[in-house]
Automatic annotation (TrEMBL):
Domain of life: Bacteria
Database matches in PROSITE patterns: ATP_GRASP
Protein name: ATP-grasp domain-containing protein
Chain positions covered by the region annotation Disordered: 411-449
Species, as recorded: Streptomyces roseolilacinus
Annotated TM spans: none
Length: 449
């Protein structure tokens, strides 16, 4: 194992409120096992990651979103560290974009931390889905055809042009307001659905994109993880195949395997090299079954939640490579462990229930299995996740009959009685409407509670 500078702590920051973000736990375990003190800025001290023995301290998520919240959180963590240097690692797009803006402040709190020397504005460029599509066109990187409608009628016309179903996604998904019910990506199956999504553009905070849907195919979904050092060299790089996902066929990696894919690795290395990217990167690709070409679907300027799949026999992964590089330690070459598997217990179970057919395993010798939540040396987060996940599913199940009941209550609500002709007397056909009469009742169709 490489020798780490354990005097330099690591600060993991995530604005996303999702308590089941297993990538945060993976990063804490990876660095903590190497002896690095780990501080986590996450949703709440009650999250499963806060139960990890490898977390030195869990700091509360800032009340504000965006750069203001990250600025406040970093100032508090820096004070807790007494100004000592620490490696800073964003774990979601919202945090990565906020750090990109805060780095421009000459006396901002980011200056107190160790971060990759990223080209100015590049993080925001690749995280924005519309800007990424334009960048791919400029660089000649295969990318699904993507259109940006100006209004609802154009959205419907573009849907007809692209063909249904299509992928509808928001350009800057980190701006979606919590509790809105809006999802970052939706598989739209009708022009009406596309119109309804476009109508919520102001609420979403960014433009709606319509993208040609590449159907899932056997062994067609791949991802690339890498770390580009301070000199721009992609020293740690690996490709993996998505075996199971949640939602099935179009979501995050529930089960993955480390497997070679020279075409995907060549595309990924070429793209990050052309952009001059620095730091940890996670790219998603899907093969077009008609042409066989791999198309870039997503560019995440931070570790993917499944990054621990690519941990070699010496424990090296992209997060450890970041710490080594930023503390001036040499980064060794990654030892390929083809056949190694990674499974996210809660999402893998849902994927199996939705699609129980067995999936083929990757070629090559088995490189072992790592689970996202359970670890023999750190079992507490798995127990905390199981309790929280059970409560989460119970709330979701209970919400179904409640919605049905509310819908039925609305249908059964009495219709306000209209004045009868017998009560008011017939009005002559030539007589004008009585402007002094009260308007019809505007009472809600469902009873107040």
């Amino acid at each position: 194992m490489p020798l780490f500078d354990t005097r330099v702590a690591a600060v993991l920051v995530r604005l996303d409120r999702n308590p089941f973000h297993h990538g945060t736990l993976g990063a804490a375990r990876s660095l903590g096992r190497a002896g690095v003190p780990v501080h986590v800025v996450a949703g709440s001290p009650g999250e499963p990651v806060a139960r990890s023995r490898y977390v030195r301290r869990c700091h509360p998520r800032p009340a504000e979103d965006g750069p203001a919240g990250v600025r406040r959180a970093l100032a508090q963590v820096s004070e807790a560290l007494a100004g000592a240097p620490a490696v800073l690692l964003p774990l979601d797009d919202a945090t990565a974009v906020a750090l990109d803006e805060l780095r421009r402040e000459p006396d901002g709190p980011v200056r107190r931390f160790l971060v990759p020397e990223q080209p100015r504005g590049l993080t925001s460029l690749v995280a924005d889905k519309a800007a990424l599509a334009a960048t791919c066109r400029r660089l000649g990187v295969p990318h699904p055809r993507t259109l940006v409608p100006a209004d609802a009628d154009e959205a419907a016309a573009m849907a007809a042009s692209l063909g249904l179903p299509l992928v509808a996604k928001w350009s800057r998904p980190w701006l979606l307001p919590p509790g809105s019910g809006l999802r970052s990506t939706v598989l739209a199956r009708s022009a009406r659905q596309v119109r309804e999504l476009h109508a919520r553009g102001a609420e979403a905070g960014s433009p709606l994109l319509l993208q040609r849907y590449l159907p899932a195919s056997r062994d067609g979904d791949w991802f690339f993880h890498g770390y580009c050092d301070s000199a721009g060299a992609c020293r740690v790089a690996a490709t993996g195949r998505k075996v199971r996902s949640w939602p099935d066929g179009a979501g995050l990696t529930a089960v993955g395997t480390w497997a070679p894919n020279p075409a995907v690795e060549r595309l990924a290395r070429g793209l990050v090299g052309a952009l001059g990217y620095r730091g940890v990167v996670d790219l998603d690709f899907r093969r077009d079954p008609d042409t066989g070409a791999y198309h870039l679907l997503d560019f995440n300027p931070r570790p993917g939640a499944q990054f621990r799949l690519f941990s070699d026999p010496w424990g090296l992964d992209v997060v450890r490579a970041l710490h080594l590089d930023l503390t001036g330690r040499p980064v060794p070459d990654l030892v390929r462990s083809y056949g190694r598997r990674f499974a996210v217990e809660n999402y893998a179970a849902l994927s199996v229930l939705a699609s129980p057919r067995p999936r083929a395993r990757g070629a090559g010798p088995s490189g072992g299995l790592e689970t996202a939540w359970y670890a023999a040396d750190d079992p507490a987060p798995a127990l905390a996740m199981a309790r929280a996940w059970t409560a989460h599913l119970a709330r979701r199940v209970w919400a179904v009959p409640r919605r049905v009941w509310h819908a039925g209550a609305g249908a059964r609500a009495p219709i306000p009685a209209q004045p009868s002709a017998r009560a008011t007397g017939p009005r002559p056909a030539s007589a004008p409407p009585d402007s002094s009469a009260p308007p019809p009742s505007s009472a809600p169709s469902t009873p107040r509670r």
